[in-house]
Amino acid sequence: MKKMGEIRKIPGGVTAAKGFKAASTAAGIKYKERPDMAMIYSEADCVSAGTFTTNLVQAAPVKWDKNQVYGGAAARAVVVNAGIANACTGKEGMEYCGRTAGACAAALDVPEDSVLVASTGVIGMQLPMDRIETGIYAMAPLLCDGEESGTKAAKAIMTTDTKHKEVAVEFELGGVTVKMGGMCKGSGMIHPNMCTMLSFVTTDAAISKELLQEALSADVQDTYNMISVDGDTSTNDTVLLLANGMAGNPVITGKNEDYAAFCQALNYINETLAKKMAGDGEGCTALFEVKIVGADTKEQAKVLAKSVITSSLTKAAIFGHDANWGRILCAMGYSGAQFDPERVDLYFESAAGSMQIIKDGVAVDYSEEQATVVLSQPEVTAVADVKMGTATATAWGCDLTFDYVKINADYRS
Fold it and tell me: What positions does UniProt annotate as the active site of this protein (predicted)?
């Protein structure tokens, strides 16, 4: 038997947990000849939790899901479309959320208020409801709990993503094996808080709604809110967490050992999905990770890490495999966090090795050629030690390439 707290990665995504099924279809909403709708369904009622964009301009699905999650109704299904965001669509956009939920409720014989909806794509366009409704009725009989259906659903929600994103784990709660899985999409318009992303996490764990929401709200601070691709916070950011309790573990109602294990698994899922999005930023060639160590407080470390990860000049240097450490120190300096630049040590790390670039704010005698090799890997890390305390924080982003501009110059076409 696995030890308490041990997390084991398993194949799959949103269908890994007991009782969850998924389906997808090509509805022709915007994309041609590719799946662009997905559905997640639970055989049993779920408690739900959610976190949403902090952009004042919020898409209709965000408003709909807030009402469902915060209203307390049990959740049974999620309908997702790619291609059109249903954002800035006024009263009609909200009505379309209701029509989507109504069609799903009829197709699955579940209450309308148990249906969550999500959209991603172009802002300002109205959904083609005839195709949405046709897609829902096409998916209902295709719902399946196999790994393949979950993967197909993850692919169906992609927009400018170049790869689908999913992960699943199993762990122990009260002596019972519990599973948790998730899928997400996100490639551009990504910046805290949160990012242009949709993320759906499912688990068969039994846990109270209050603790489910608390666990999710806390975890997004160190995962989704620590990634950035381009500095733009989307109108549609949504993270939904559904728990149907079908694993049969003792219901988690307090912050005990089981709750800690649950949070640990949730963090693994969310961090993995967050890094997959950062590493698939529009046009990018590398995942860029920034670790701040030796900070005085966690908040100081977060501010410093985010400032570096969002620096366009730093991101361009990573694309050029150029160890231009001055850009990193500069980004730390304008972050607003207080530190002594003359005490900072900086390292670059990747699969090609680790090397120190500056010590106490001054460049060391390093090889530019070696630095280029280290920075030429698909995953690159910058570690900055500010020597003030023991707090740490990590942020994730990507390099800035020519292709980012190309992708976003004609996104609507």
Answer: 196 (nucleophile)
